[in-house]
Each structure stands twice: as structure tokens, then as C-alpha cells.
Amino acid sequence: MADIKLMKGNEAFAEAAIRAGCDAYFGYPITPQSEVLEYLTAQEPHKRTGMVVLQAESELAAINMVYGAAGTGKRVMTSSSGPGISLKQEGISYMAGSELPCLILNVMRGGPGLGTIQPSQSDYFQATRGGGHGDYYTPVLAPASVQEMSDFVKLGFELAFRYRNPVVILSDGIIGQMMEKVELFPQQPRLAEFDQSWVTTGKTPDRKRNIITSVDLDSARQEKHNQDLQKKYQRMRENEVRFESTNCDDADYILVAFGSASRICQKTVKIAREKGIKLGLLRPVTLFPFPAEEIKRLGRQVKGMLCVELNAGQMIEDVRLAVENNTVVALHNRMGGMVPTPEEVYHAILQKFSIE
Amino acid sequence: MEKENLRLDEIIREENIVFKKTPLLTDKVFSYCPGCGHGVVHRVIMEVIDELGIQSETIGISPVGCSVFAYDFMNIDMQQAAHGRAPAVATGIKRCWPDKYVFTYQGDGDLAAIGTSETIHACNRGEHIAIFFINNGIYGMTGGQMAPTTLPGMKSSTTPYGRDTRLMGNPIKITELVATLPGTYFVTRQSVHTAVNVRKLKKAAKMAFENQKLKKGLSFIEVVSNCNSGWKMSPIQANRWMEENMLPFYPIGDIKINGNFVKRN
Known about the structure:
heterodimer, A: alpha/beta, Rossmann fold, 2 domains, seven-stranded mixed sheet, 15 strands, B: alpha/beta, eight-stranded mixed sheet, two-stranded antiparallel sheet, 10 strands
């Protein structure tokens, strides 16, 4: 019997964490993601599964608690929103450099600075370009529903451990706050065994000592380390691209949108189809790696693409790189917590591509 | 020369050995300057872990600073933390592995400047970890800049005319500060400039690890040390200067034992 509940996105994420067998969560309150920490503390997961939940003194401390626990092989996660994610970038960079798995949820709000608590997608650059200092990437999953807020916890941990790398779930204030029905997956056990080839759980006589570090002052070794990391990111590009196509097969025009913006665009596709315009929607599910090949293929087929984003136009740079000038790429965007209506996007299509 | 070697061969025999390097120190040559206290503190901590037989249950955390590469010398599982974040990293480990032994090894800049928040909150939560705090009043690794613990009037590369407290603020006695927090169970200040002091540090270090079994709070050990390179002195001069200037300001002794303040005259 399916376990279906009506939940907020943030709550579904927290419940999924417990069910995914997450070992520890370290967080700090910030709107619009505080429900994650509130839900977890209310659930007392130390009684349900033995999961550790701790409210840290800052985002800096939280991400470094994640670093410590992840270095022992545990399934660990944290969550925040833009300003807090910025503080966490130091730790995320260290984790990428030290090759530690973890899950990081960003429930995006408008910026820059303290910005607003209203939803936005303006952390796209930060998430897809690494975010902190140094050459690194993290897989980025963009949920578009409360269901995916739950499902991506499991997927996120799988990717984090497959590549020994932090994984970012790039959500936003709409997906985090809205309530939808969600089918929850059954409880999974917490980890019982740890890969003794790298974890720091105490050096036993049967193995070498393990060290978690990102520092190496020997330039030749540091270059080799960087090359190995780049190979890993290349493997992600080859194997982990995920996207969702709606009415793209016969489309003359394509909307490209992720997360909450894609939900609005789904309705726009319906409106356009009813009016006889062959409109499709390409939703990148992974923002890194980006579905560039699919967008390139569609670029050869269509008359134009419209990127719909809740930011100044960030993903559009990746779309333009992907289409290689094979088609026109336009932008319809809102910022600062403003959200377009499906009709607004529909009129943008008519206007940008001079459709009578 | 040959004659002398023969004589040494006769002396260096198993039955004559009264001191051995603990196997918990690797064979890597210390990167520390001759005369620096880090090497002695490393040895003391590793000897304690060896004697308690807890190598397989111990995780250490190295900071950013001179001891960033402590993991090259300590033959145990270790994590290298971002600048100042070692107590948070230790918290993450200890919360997930409450029966393991976890310690941080931090300098004054790491612990008392950039990591003040992590230090105070780990102490205040009463994490069942040990913090080793090496205080030499200077940033050694980056070339001798002012530290939060630099004494008034003390010269450094960023206080070339001496620390003017009106401009640069006062040195912080963070050990006394954390002792006021209910989460600290054992707070002490030691040094390693004489053999007697080294033995006292070892006793304190042992207590810091044994306390972790009790789960009654955090053990905080400050070691007042020298930085002869940064202070621009010979090792002997540096130790003398430390005794005459550092120790009056940072007095050696236990501040809190078993959760209770130690009465001082």
C-alpha cells in the first residue's frame, strides 16, 4: 500500500531524509527552508532510526559538521537558502577537494545580499559553477514538485556516494513551501558498513591510516589531483544527465525552464497547444551536468527557444552554448520574488518570436 | 671518528634503551622549526593515545596554521579542517561516533580569532571531545603576524612597533573564557619548555582522553609555547622570553577539573 501524504516540499525533503537512512543532519534556520530543521526535530529521528539532528551555531559550523561526519563515511546532509549557502561555500569547496559525499539543499530566495524571502532561481550560477573557490563541480538536481523533493534525497545520496562528491538539490521558495501530495518511499536502513579504504573511523592494525584533506603543497601532485577531479566531473557529464521533455517531438518552439518555473511553463504549453502553436517544454532535471546534447538536438529542429527563469537570465548562458547558434534563444524572466503567470509566458512567446 | 662509532655501538643496545619514539609518530621528519614546541606536544599526545591503546578508536583534526600537516606526523586517522572550523568538524564526527575519541589540535589564530565561534559553541554544547590549543602569540605559518593572543607591546610582522592595544585591541584569554561555560569539564593551561612541564602536559592530555569516556563535557588544554622563528630569537632566548613575558599573562595551571573551578591563591 502506497504511503501518500499531503506535505510541504521542505517537510517531504526532511521525511525522505529519515527514510533514506540519513545518518546526520546539521543545519541553521533561514527562511524559506526552516521547516526542514523544524520537521526533523519534531520527528525525533534519533528515536526512529538513530539519525543525528543538530542545530549548529552558524552555517559555517553546520557545513563543517557535515564535513567531519562525511569524512567518517556517514550519509550526511544540510540545508539552507541563498545567504546561508554562500556561507557554506567554503566547506563545500573543501568537501569537493577532499572528495567527501554529502547532500546540500538550497531552497532559493531572491538576492543579492539579504534580498528577499520570496522565491527565486538566482543561485543557478553559484550552484552549477561549483560555488566556492577552486576548480570543482557538484551534481545539481532541480526538483519541480514536492514528490521530487522526496525522491531526490535518495537519488542525491546515491550520486554523492557514487562519485564521493557533494550533491546540491537546487530548490526554491515555491517548491519548498507549497503543499502537494507525495508518495513516500519505504524506510531504508542506515549504513552498517563503511568503506575502510578512505573513512576516518580510527586506524586499525589491518589497514593504513586514512586522512581527509584537500591540501597538498606539491604542485605536481596537486595538478594530478585536479586532473583526477576533472575526470570525475567528465564521468558525471557522460552518465548523469537527466531531463524531462513535454511535447517536444513536433515542437516549433521550445520553452526551457527548471524547477518552479517549469511548473508554470507546463501550463503555458497547454495554453499554446490549445491555440494551435506547437510549443514544447524541455526541463533540465540535472543543472550540472546540463542536458546540452538534447538542447543542441532540439535547437536544430525548432524555430526558437525561450528560457523562462526567476533570475536575470542565468541558465540561458548554458542554453546558448548548447544550441551553437542553430536557433534563436530568448529570455523571459522575473526577479526579486516575482513569479510570471502562464499567460504572461504565453504572450512572451508570441512577442519574442513574432507569432501572429 | 671510527673509535667513537664503536663506542656508540656498544652503548646503543636494547637493554640500555630508556626512551623510544612512540610508533604513533610516523618517521616523517617534522616540518617545525628547531626549538618549536609543536613537536613535543605531538609526541605527548601520541604517547598518551599509545599508552591508552586507543589508536583504532581515535580521530584527530588538524587546523590551518603551522600544524596543518599534523597528519603527516601523527600515525592515526585524521581530518584536516578549514581555518578555525576544527571544533565543528570534531562535533560532526563525535555526534555520529559517540564512543570514539576525537580531538582537535589548533593554534591561536585558528582557535581564538577565525574560529572563536566554533570554539565557544563546541565548548558551550559540552561536546565530549578534547581541544589542544597551542598558544605562541603569533601566526607562525604565514610569517609572524599578530595573533589574538599577541601580548601588549609585542612585536610581530603586522605590529612592527609593538602591539598598541588602543589600535589593535587586547590579547584574548580564551581559556579563562571557555572555563566559564557549563559545557567545559576540564580546562587547563600547560607548557612544554621544561621536562617537568612536559610531564604535566602528558598527565593533562591523558585526563582529556579519559574524560571522553565519562561523556560529561569538553576538555580544553592550552599549551603556552614559543615561536623562536616568529619571535626572532634563539630557542633558548625564546623559552626565557616566554617564561618572563607570556607566563605572567597566561599563568600555567588547572582552571577547571571535573567540572569544578580550581581554587587559586
